Amino acid sequence: MNRFRVLILLVLCFSTLPAQNLDRASILQAAREIMIAARFCTFVTLDKGGFPQARIMDPFPPTPSFSVWMATNSKTRKTEQIKNNPKVAINYFDRTGVSSVTLIGLASLVTDREKKAKLWKEEWESFYSNTFEGDDYILIEVKPIQLEIVSYKHKIASEPDSWKPAIVTFPE
């Protein structure tokens, strides 16, 4: 049996285990670890027709309040989609820990020069015309409304009948 099939089998088997009674702080700590371990995420916006549009992004680690920051080109479709509808979702999957986190929130576009300088990665230099000082480099901030998590590694399972994940709402 190949690795992918074993992984799917583990996820399906684990998803039927009863959820642990974990406190909010423990769930958020596990979520933070998964988000950092995953490194990349799938960022989902809604187009004008209401259809989801997904793409892989390279986010910064979540802030203490679980806001997520990402960078993009100001001319991308996602910037227009955020302007039209700020409701977004971000999904992180950590294959080694058989864990996933989905963050549902509201996105905003940020052009503040100081923030852009602070959130700059040198490996992005070839993607932007004038590094963090150019108008093509902008930031996306996603403020969380809800976080969903399932993690084999952290023993955070979904409900056995509905497969509903552990959920944390913000602010609290």
3D architecture notes:
- With 172 residues, the protein is of the alpha+beta class.
- It has helices at residues 3-14, 24-38, 77-84, 113-118; strands at residues 41-46, 52-57, 68-73, 87-94, 99-110, 129-132, 137-151, 166-169.
- The chain has one domain: Roll (Pnp Oxidase, Chain A), CATH 2.30.110.
- The longest helix is centred in the first third of the chain and has 15 residues, at 24-38.
- Mean pLDDT is 90; it is low at 15-19.
Order of helices and strands: HHEEEHEEHEEE
Tell me, briefly, the overall form. Answer: globular
* CA gyration radius, whole angstroms: 17 Å
CATH architecture: Roll
**Helicity level, as a percent range?**
10-25%
**Number of DSSP helical runs:** 4
Q: What's the average pLDDT?
A: 90
| Coarse structural class | alpha+beta
CATH class: Mainly Beta
Oligomer: single chain
The fold-level CATH name is Pnp Oxidase, Chain A
